Amino acid sequence: MSGLVLEALVAGRVARGGADFRLPPLDLAARPGEVIALIGPNGAGKTTLLKTVAGLIPPLAGRVSRPGPVAYLPPPGAVSAGFSALHLAALGRAGRRRWSPGLAPEDIEAARAALARLEVADLADRPFDRLSSGQQQLVLIARLFVQDAAVCLLDEPLALLDPAHAQAVEAAIRALAAEGRIVLASSHHLPFAARADRVLAIGPDWIEAAAPAHALSPDRVRALFGVETPGCPCCGQALS
């Protein structure tokens, strides 16, 4: 499986009667099995970049070379459905059934196996909109497991989660990558970014991909968020 390549990609929006919003040009090559954390302050353009990579909005310049199908997971709360968690997860295979209006038994079984893999099999028959935020995220990631997506783009997958569900979701993200998918996930959760393979940071007028140790150094965090970090984002130990 080849990688995801962004060449001089400029993501942004053209507003009618207002100022354009655009990110600086980005060159990035992501390899299969890699987890890249996308960080930056609110309004920096993280969602815009994810949607551009997904093909949901056109780039203002440059190009995106995708190794295969792309799956985009919107922020928590964006998906609301009254049918069962099992049915929602199985819909990840709907793209395989272009000439059929329904799901096949093997689609349901694949979804059931994905829920079991994430240890939420007990949620299968419960209405999705009755689940907690953490439970919903795990069901939606189970849906990613049954898709034929080479690239998974997750928008704030750790938002609104308690520590236990945040840990479970991060483990699920790692499992997605372990199967050869490229994962690009935006997050304000710096410990998650510290454990990623790389960090893609969007600053006020710059965008940069780097190793976590560099991207989350005190100087870089100060440049991004305007705050001091007295300890390591991952373990809390004092930084020298």
Automatic annotation (TrEMBL):
One of the protein's GO biological processes: zinc ion transport
Bilayer-spanning residue ranges: none
Cited Pfam families: ABC_tran
Entry-linked PROSITE patterns: ABC_TRANSPORTER_1, ABC_TRANSPORTER_2
Domain ABC transporter: 4-229
GO molecular function, one term: ATP hydrolysis activity
Keyword set includes Nucleotide-binding: yes
SMART domains for this protein: AAA
Keyword field: ATP-binding, Ion transport, Nucleotide-binding, Transport, Zinc, Zinc transport
SUPFAM superfamilies for the chain: P-loop containing nucleoside triphosphate hydrolases
Name assigned to this protein: Iron complex transport system ATP-binding protein
Naturally occurring in which organism (per UniProt): Brevundimonas basaltis
